[in-house]
Specification:
This protein is mainly beta. It has one helix and eleven strands. Strands 2, 4, 5, 6, 9, 10 and 11 form a seven-stranded mixed beta sheet that branches. The protein has a four-stranded antiparallel beta sheet with strand order 1-3-8-7, with no helix packed on it. A hairpin with a 2-residue loop joins strand 5 and strand 6. The chain is globular and about 40 Å long. It starts with a strand and ends with a strand. The relative contact order is 0.32.
Length: 123
């Protein structure tokens, strides 16, 4: 069982930046950030497996996902934030067989989830 704890959410004005962190109790090969806004489906934001990363179209060029394996910590650097980035952000993790599988993994693939951290972007 892997426990995930997110931190770093908060309120920021449009154009600002935030950095989310996700501390994991153990190693998993694939980690990801998802987000969900009220009334909307959960959206895959970014995944990282080895050196392979994936970004959703809505965040490409603005968000950067990274991980520190020594600390079992996942990060999401969010720049040029927009009002539409407002959501609860969730960290997710899974043991997958390949980095390629991680880059296409949907929410149902991930066994472990954090409790979520709120990000609010105001205009």
């Amino acid at each position: 069982q892997v426990q995930l704890v997110e931190s770093g959410g908060g309120s920021v004005q449009a154009g600002g930046s935030l950095r989310l962190s996700c501390a994991a109790s153990g190693y998993t090969s694939c980690m990801a950030w998802f987000r969900q806004a009220p009334g909307k489906e959960r959206e895959r934001v970014a995944t990282i497996g080895g050196m392979t990363t994936y970004y959703g179209d809505s965040v490409k060029g603005r968000f950067t996902v990274s991980r520190d394996n020594a600390k079992n910590t996942l990060y999401l650097e969010m720049n040029s934030l927009k009002v539409e980035d407002t959501a609860t952000y969730y960290c997710a993790a899974a043991m997958l067989g390949s980095w390629a599988a991680c880059s296409i993994a949907s929410a149902s693939t991930f066994k472990y989830w954090g409790q979520g951290t709120q990000v609010t972007v105001s205009s």
